[in-house]
Write a structure and sequence with these properties.
It is a single chain. The N and C termini lie far apart (about 55 Å). The protein has about 150 residues and is mostly helical. The chain contains eight helices and no strands.
């Protein structure tokens, strides 16, 4: 039993980073976002806990990566948009832990969400985009704004 525990710990220490915060050659977490967009589109509603934690550290950075990854046609596809909305909600799930302070303000995210709202023809997806706009706005409002 101890041997298995030691092997498991060694694996965790030596395993390559699986998260989006590896830094270095992928400062925008493009690979991480691309892979998770594919997963979110293939398995709607499915979440991997370590990925959610890493998304919570990205904030506005997730939208920057999405704009780099997706084509214009993708941003009109309801299935892809639903996957984007899921990742955006995860990214603003707990704003105090967003790694880069400038990414706590959802400037690029609001730009992207407003673009999606204007360009998606599916009424349900438009409502989901509006709900995400409201969610991100609520999550990132200053404490004074939340209570007024």
């Amino acid at each position: 039993m101890r041997f298995l525990a030691v092997v498991f710990c060694a694996f965790l220490v030596c395993a390559p980073p699986l998260s989006g915060q590896a830094g270095g050659e992928d400062p925008y977490s493009i690979t991480f976002v691309r892979n998770n967009l594919k997963n979110a589109a293939a398995f709607p509603g499915g979440k991997i806990s370590f990925a959610v934690k890493d998304f919570q550290r990205l904030g506005d950075g997730v939208s920057i990566a999405m704009l780099k990854v997706l084509e214009d046609e993708d941003l009109k596809n309801p299935k892809t948009v639903q996957a984007c909305l899921s990742l955006i909600r995860d990214s603003f799930g707990y704003p105090p832990i967003i790694s880069i302070s400038v990414n706590r303000r959802p400037k690029v995210t609001m730009f992207l969400l407003n673009y999606l709202k204007r360009n998606v023809s599916d009424p349900q997806t438009q409502r989901d985009v509006q709900e995400t706009i409201e969610y991100v706005g609520h999550q990132t409002a200053s404490p004074e704004q939340k209570w007024n």
